[in-house]
Design brief:
mainly alpha; 2 strands; two-stranded antiparallel sheet; 136 residues; globular; 3% strand
């Protein structure tokens, strides 16, 4: 099975990605000043997990005219195989590599929007990390 071929996030997806890198970095106790365990690959994986697990009906408007951002190849071969099989199982049909890669990009976009909805739905006293873990 081939690896993840680079796809693009919409400009809205990129803005959400950057927002959550900052928002979750601010909430973590840091080992070293200026050093955070939360980076873009972590948020991309988190968004993909939310996109795969959630049953929320999220509309992704691809008509976004802003700049697109290339999703780097952050998945190990084992992770890619796992995500591929989850997507194939959910679609209940055989998918080729291009379809799997497109679906991964769509699920990342969907997951970022779900994270944004969770951020907006939580009350001001809720911890964002806990809300992400408990809300689907």
């Amino acid at each position: 099975m081939a690896g993840f071929k680079r796809k693009h996030l919409s400009s809205t997806g990129k803005q959400l990605l950057d927002y959550f890198v900052g928002a979750l970095s601010d909430q973590l106790p840091q080992e070293k000043p200026g050093k955070s365990n939360v980076d873009r690959p972590f948020i991309i994986r988190l968004a993909l997990a939310k996109g795969l697990s959630s049953h929320r009906n999220i509309e992704i408007n691809d008509q976004n005219t802003g700049d697109k951002w290339e999703i780097p190849d952050i998945f190990t071969p084992e992770e890619y195989t796992l995500y591929s099989h989850i997507i194939i199982n959910q679609s209940k049909r055989v998918l080729n590599t291009d379809e799997i890669n497109n679906e991964i990009a769509i699920r990342i976009e969907k997951g970022l929007r779900i994270l944004d909805q969770i951020q907006k739905e939580k009350n001001s006293l809720d911890d964002l990390r806990l809300a992400i873990l408990t809300m689907n």
